[in-house]
Amino acid sequence: MKKITLFLIAGLVVMxxxxxxxxxxxxxxxxxxxxxxxxxxxIVTPPEGAEQMLYTFNGHDTYTNKDKxxxxxxxxxxxxxxxxxxxxxxxxxxVKGTISDGxxxxxxxxxxxxxxWGDVYELYFDGAEFxxxxxxxxxxxxxxxxxxxxxxxxxxxxxNVTLTRVVPEVATPATPTITEFTxxxxxxxxxxxxxxxxxxxxxxxxxxxxYQLFINRNGEQSVYEFTTDDYLFLEENMTVVxxxxxxxxxxxxxxKQVYLxxxxxxxxxxxxxxxxxxxxxxxxxxxxxxYQLKPTAINGVNANxxxxxxxYDLQGRKVDANATGLLVxxxxxxxxTTRAIKVMR
Length: 345
Prior knowledge:
Oligomer: single chain
Strand content: 35-45%
Number of domains: 2
Low-confidence stretches: 1-28, 31-39, 295-300
Radius of gyration: 22 Å
Distance between the termini: 38 Å
Mean pLDDT: 82
């Protein structure tokens, strides 16, 4: 059964706050503000095929009075500069500036439309200047910038902003885990832990991560597809979900909570998930973690078919076989599949 509008309004308050992506109080203000908007302009996009370089954003959020760090993408095209990720409300939006005498100037500009709670808002960048070093590896702006929706409704607001280029290395992401499968009044959902680390525990960049779900139906495995028929705010079908993606309705950031749809969910015997890390077009994948849905699928495991056993904590980190507490026991079978159960030791 699809979730109703009441759940959309009440539940998203919690989901947005937990995700830590945008400020819930500002979203409430949006709902109550008159819709007098600025003049719409052209949506900015970088030249097709241009290299998108990864930068780490560090800045002070003047609204929450907290320092924040996340990832943005930068494109350099002669004296033009494009940046994606300045808005936490609309992370896919680009802004365009011009570089002259070591300064990147970004004028006021329309950033595009974004959707929250089923309402569409026009987002605008309010202009900024960044000092840029010789090799464009560091950009700084003490004054920072703001974005806004209505003439007096500021959303993002940062000062003391520094963008630092990073060069990610190819790495195999740590295996994610599914920690819960639950049915409520609105349908079925899973909760996942998807570590932004590699198999050795080193940090990797969330902006380069994605995940994919799998369904096992009595031994037959298939990729789970997120479709526009089931997911109201999805713009196109997808089988691979960016780590930072959320529709503020069914899919939470980092897979913290994801609703599942299907006419045959009662026929599913297991749900799987894997992480994907893509650097310069080269993708590395984690093992698939399987969460067993039916006790018979677990009890029916023949010990003679198990070729390897590993243990993980609930954060997805591999632990020693002698570790104690609530753990996930993952068994690799002779046919290459894996099965997992929770154990208390």
